[in-house]
Amino acid sequence: MNRILTIAGTEFRIARRNRWITVSAVLMMIFALVLTAAGSAPSGALAADRLSVVVASLTSLAVYVVPLIALLLSFDAIAGEVERGTLSLLLTYPVSRAEALAGKLLAHIAVLTLALLAGYGLAALVALVGDRSAIAGLPALWRLGWSSVLLGITFLGAGYALSSLAGRPSGAAGLAIALWVGAVVLYDLALLAAVVADDGGALTRQGLPVALLANPADAFRLFNLSASQATAAASGLGAAAKTVPALATLGSLAIWPVLAFALAWLGFRRVQP
Amino acid sequence: MTPRLTLSQLTKRYGEVHALTDVSLDVAPGERVALLGHNGAGKSTLMKIVLGLIGFDAGTVSVEGAAPGSAAARRMTAYLPENAAFHAALTGRELVRHYLRLRGQPASQAGELLDRVGLAHAADRRIGTYSKGMRQRVGLAQALIGQPALMVLDEPTSGLDPVSRREFYALIDDLAHAGASVLLSSHALTEVEARTDRLVILSRGRIVAAGSMADLRARAGLPLSVTVTPAPESAAVLRAALPADAIWQDGRGHLHIPVAEKMGFLARIAALGPQVSDIEIAPPSLEDIYTHFSQTPGATTPAERAEQAEAA
To answer: Quick check: B53 and A273 CB within 8 A?
Structure first.
């Protein structure tokens, strides 16, 4: 445990020095501010409190930004050390590969959590200042917060796996971008296309829920949107969301981080320094 | 004394490439062994196998009875990788504290370790601002943690200036006196010559020669280089007195003589008295010996030689 904390401490310090923490926190804060400002317009019509509306907007944003930050933090983790020649040194220390990976993960979770706290915290603050009833939206924001961390861990693990697979930072960056575009953007487009082509057939009824649960980003979106019924319409796949039980989305959100870390460990085990 | 590191008939292949073939080597406690060889001769591969970073195909490796890469072996072994680029955002002290903690040693020793490698003045500067030599010293500082029984140093003096090199070898001497076994590789042959107990020359993954400098010199049987400077007006006399195969350049005679004929030759030159102004005798340099052994036929197979001839 000491060794994990040592590696985590050093990685966190590096992230701080390299301004990763500042950059990701500022990124989250800017998006949060923009969404709180933009999200105030339709709140009257839906008669929901202001924070709940903001949470809905933040959810659609977090689906893109949280995986992005996680992949940015993680793509260099293994490949960078291989290239710098420090991985071989680390592996001659009495440190197991799982410990090294866990240390990095811990540090990167801390960085991500700080960024989320800054962004979501600011959004909550602005919403509460404008509207006292927004306090009713705090549970939704809390749910968004911890589910964002779970989503982040999933993509951190995926990032480590790609970093191990690529062997070089440039290759790892390419794979990370491909994963992001594929999982977050193209996956939904493909599903939409399939739903349209199928026109309410068996594929939509049985295949779609499974497909949505299989992608952690979609599970995250459904989990947060189904929890706040008032804003389900905000999602392009809103109708389909209703067919997926909330417990299943939670299950997907909880299992993916474990799976991703296992993948990362399997990938890292194959790396020969 | 039982050896601290034992390699026995070690063989490692990467596909069709024979990285190491039948390598056997013992390193005793307190012994300093230098691995020499061209790039790609197998030095780094050998070191990585000793460290347990990569596996091998045949043979045995043991670090005081422990398997390479096992927890016991890792605790005993320190490593200085070739050209390790430590994270530029950390200071030297932070980095050494990090490695101390990983070895379960008190982080407060960082100052003392950095002082030993002559980095006390720069301990709190970021590694990004360090020169190449200073980075190498940080790497050395981490290799000193916890008085390792076996130190594996890959090109430890690359990037160091001559003064730093001397300091480095003084440090290695101290460690060896205290009982540490040192396995290092180097390209700087002259410094290795004076500062190690044994040289091991690798060529194409095989040990082509091993022993002390004197052993290797005797076994290579290379001639001595002699330079004779005649006194003014005596050049013609000397030209006649020296063997015919001497090469005359800038008014001086250069020739090679077998070691066995050294005393006879000296006696003949001395007999010429004042007609000789100066004589220099140089034993074969380590470069010569190294070249001799790493080009010995048998190090290359006939097929490989044919291939090289074709390529040329």
So the answer is: yes
Interchain CB distance below 8 Å, A89 and B71: no
Size of interface A-B (CB pairs under 8 A): 72
All residues of chain B having their beta carbon less than 8 Å from the beta carbon of residue A2 are: 101, 104
ipTM: 0.85
Chain A contact set for B83 (CB, 8 A): 85
pLDDT in tens, B149-205: 999 999 888 878 888 888 888 999 999 999 999 999 987 677 777 788 898 988 888
> What gap in Å lies between CA B300 and CA A145, rounded to an integer?
65
Q: Is B89 on the interface with A (CB under 8 A)?
A: yes
Q: Do B77 and A3 touch (CB under 8 A)?
A: no
Cβ(A131)–Cβ(A138) under 8 Å?
no
Give the tens place of pLDDT for each residue, B239-289: 887 887 888 888 888 888 888 888 888 888 888 888 888 889 888 877 788
- Residue range(s) occupied by CATH 3.30.70 in chain B: 223-283
The tokens of B45 are what?
Answer: 């591969």
Mutate to test the interface with B, among A92, A97, A104, A270 (most CBs of B within 10 A): A92
Is B79 in Cβ contact with A92 (below 8 Å)?
yes
CATH 3.40.50.300 residue ranges of chain B are 5-218
Which one of A88, A268, A271 would you mutate to disrupt binding with B, by most B Cβ within 10 Å of its Cβ? A88
User: B169 is written with which tokens?
Assistant: 């070898």
Share of chain A above pLDDT 90, in %: 46
Domain B5-218, CATH: 3.40.50.300
Residue A177's pLDDT band (boundaries 50, 70, 90)?
very high
- In A, minimum Cα distance to B126 occurs at A17
The architecture CATH gives domain B223-283 = 2-Layer Sandwich (3.30)
The model's pTM: 0.84
